[in-house]
Amino acid sequence: MNAPFFRNGWALALLAGPGLLALTAARPRPPEENILQRIARQVSEYYAAVLPEKAYLHLDKPVYATGETIWFSAYVVDALRHQADSTSRVLYVDLVSPEQKIVSRRTLRLQGGRAAGDIDVTDTLAAGVYQLRAYTTWMRNAGDNFIYSRRLQVWPASPYTAEAVPPMASAARKAGAPAPAAAPGGRPDVQFFPEGGSLVEGLPAVVACKAVAPGGRGVDVRGQILDERNAVVVAAFATAHLGMGRFAFVPAAGHQYHAHLTLPGGGAADYPLPAPQASGYVLHVADAGAEYVVEARYHAAPGTTAPAQAMLLTEVRGYLVYIGQRPLDGPAPATWRLAKARYPNGILHITLVDEKGTPQAERLAFVQNGPAALPATITADRPSYGLRAPVQVRVRVADAAGQPVAAHFSVAVAEGSVGGLDPNAETIASNLLLTSDLAGYVENPGYYFQAPSAATAQALDNLLLTQGWRRFVWKDVLSGQPAAVPFAADKALALSGQVLSEHGYRPIPNSQLTFVETRPVRQVTTGTTDASGRFNFVGFDGRDTAVVTLQARRAQGGSNVVIRTDTGPPLVGPPLPPLPAPPPAIVDYMKRSRQQQADEHEMNPNLHAGMVVRNILLGNVAVTAKRVVVPPNDSRRLYGATGGTLVDFTEIPSAQSGMNILQVLQGRIAGLTVTGNPPNMSVQIRNQGTPIFILDGQKVDLEFISNLTSNDIEAVEVFKGTEAAIFGGSGGAIAIYTKRGDSKYKGADKGPAPGIATVRLPGYYQAREFYAPRYGAPTLTAPGPDPRRTALYWNPDVRTNAAGEAAFTVFTADVNGTFQVVAEGLTPAGQPVRGTATVVVQGNK
């Protein structure tokens, strides 16, 4: 190490091995702080403030079919050490449709950074590419690009929908030929990324290329690099893996460059390269086996002076490993040699800093010392098994020296061919070490770790050159300002959000909030928004869905505000790509899944939640029913009161015009008197004084009601005399039921009513138990058919003993074949664990 500033343990603590330093809470800065010390302190303070988290979901299968269930085990870890995290206690898991709609959400209680759950891919859902995402509220402080996200192929297979196998796939299967590849649709997006960040005139450059089809998948291109006169600069280059590749050249002064590319469909197109700068820094990193060789150069434009020196800073997941200086004003490049053995596994962030402490160039590389995941050795007690036979499985986890290692993992046993349907799907190692620290979608992440080779290492380096580091921005870290953390860590279920201006959506600080919970308990409290207009209510027990009404007022009393409750990261971006043409293996899988679902339903019609049997014909029968506007058990009924005079606003044409609701009521109910003009109106029932006003189960005042428009209202119920006794008072009561307060109202996404919001906050989801019969025990009746065909076993919670071992039993079903056992998890130290094995079933049918 060149810089001797790491003395007296200042702000950094030695973690493991020479040169490896963990960023800890910063101590008071020393009286005289040089640039290197300042950078180290600011990086330390940043990580101490943001405490980043990561989430990962281990699934029972890599692909699914309609009518199946996604079984998952969740791991939430701190982003630095990958150890089980305790900052957050609540995890949200969403299934997002190809149209960017949340079709299912699970709210899970985290215990020691772990949770398990399941999501039904109901047969009402269309086949397509879905997105599975998982996040804590605290994770959103790093930006919504860093929540867990995974694309899932969902194929049509439910026996209660239309033909499961697409005709094109059926024809290809019958002909014995592979299904055709999806045709490219439109011109691909091609981008160029200079290594280090910029092209500089007169300095050698490596430029990475990434080509992506309109559907979001990488496509290969080839071509030449030309200058503005169409003179050839690079005679030929081509992408090598998923549309990524690189080339080298030296940009000359006064020239502009572009690529002339041959596209997948056979056409050609030109794409510009970034413009070279007259002066600046370039950074080049070369893999030299046991070390990385880093070179930095600077080119000074005429009339300017080159800097005398530069500093190099390297870190992995917040571990600051090295800061060193080199002279930069000579003819030779400044060179550093970084021994890989000094770094933990993961993305190495290399940053070039100038004499003033300003980052000028950065580059990512990948460090892998040993296997990406500790191997879990999985063994079965026999080489093959019959039908409905017990399979005794043992799992052992050990380090490189053969010493046992404790681990907490999940296990899936599925049909062997299922794993081959998406062989490059992510794993816990590829996620924690790679994709969780990159913004955006990474295609086929498992490819880089399945069978390490020179080709996969080159492809991974190309990925890092093009995808880039985005977990923090240097100008934010070195600004001297506290890190922004707008989202609080959930220690329990919470209802949070923001109060904004009605039209400009400007945050409203010091807004007065009234919180009314009507179910499962009744409670009322008040609060005030912070300087950013945000609020956070806690105290839900999570045992049942809570129904809450929020009323917000400005500090001056006005109700012309909008309440936006947090519903998770926004669903933005282009639609997900379509399913490719199904290969024969997928076609076979859909048939087996379809048969399994039919067998399951025959055994137990109520087994699948939400399953609907269609195509039931009723001849010559007409069924009609009058709509119940506000049913007696509606959660918006305060105290469950019923019996008033109900006015259905949806059947009144004038109520759809947006006029004042009190004007709509004028003359419609006997004994109700409305006088005056908006907003100065008065109401009486049988001349008994001002009635009590109730909005979606919450008592409000007349002024608030006067600001509501009728097209937001579903119904109004007027309680007179003894009907209103339950509410107290002597002037009767008027209950207003808004459309947004009705969970079945399909227009609820048209925007909130001013100053009020009714929210249903789901309790913690209780994961179901995977169906796993145990044969051999005496029973009174003969067992029925075993429907399991695609998946035999799922256990989200397995722990090794002191010897690093765990054991469990799997029972085979009524089908022969090869089944794959997959175990994934973590050690207490944060090391990923993964292992696979096969189980052969050869029984007599």
What would you note in describing this structure?
It is a single chain. This protein is mainly beta. It has a domain at 500-573 and 622-762: TonB-dependent receptor, plug domain (Ferric Hydroxamate Uptake Protein, Chain A, domain 1). 10% of the residues lie in helices and 36% in strands. The chain is built from 10 helices and 45 strands. The strands form 11 sheets. Strands 42-27-44-45-25-26-43 form a 7-stranded mixed beta sheet. It has a 6-stranded antiparallel beta sheet with strand order 1-2-21-20-23-24. Strands 4-10-9-6-7 form a 5-stranded mixed beta sheet. Strand 16 (257-262) and strand 17 form a beta hairpin. The longest helix has 20 residues, at 584-603. It starts with 11 loop residues before the first strand and ends with a strand. The model is unreliable at 1-27, 163-184, 608-625 and 747-751 (pLDDT under 50).
The profile of the biggest β sheet is: 7 strands, mixed
How would you classify the quaternary structure?
Answer: single chain
Instruction: Summarize the amount of helix as a percent range.
Output: 10-25%
**Number of DSSP E strands:** 45
What's the rounded overall pLDDT mean? 84
Give the uncertain stretches in residue-range form. Answer: 1-27, 163-184, 608-625, 747-751
The gyration radius over C-alpha positions equals 32 Å
Looking at CATH, the homologous superfamily of the domain at 500-573 and 622-762 is TonB-dependent receptor, plug domain
Instruction: Return the CATH topology of the domain at 500-573 and 622-762.
Output: Ferric Hydroxamate Uptake Protein, Chain A, domain 1
Strand content bin: 35-45%
Number of helices: 10
Instruction: Quickly give the structural class.
Output: mainly beta
Strand order of the largest sheet: 42-27-44-45-25-26-43
User: In the CATH classification, which architecture of the domain at 500-573 and 622-762 applies?
Assistant: Beta Complex
Shape: globular
CATH structural class of the domain at 500-573 and 622-762? Mainly Beta
Distance between the termini: 68 Å
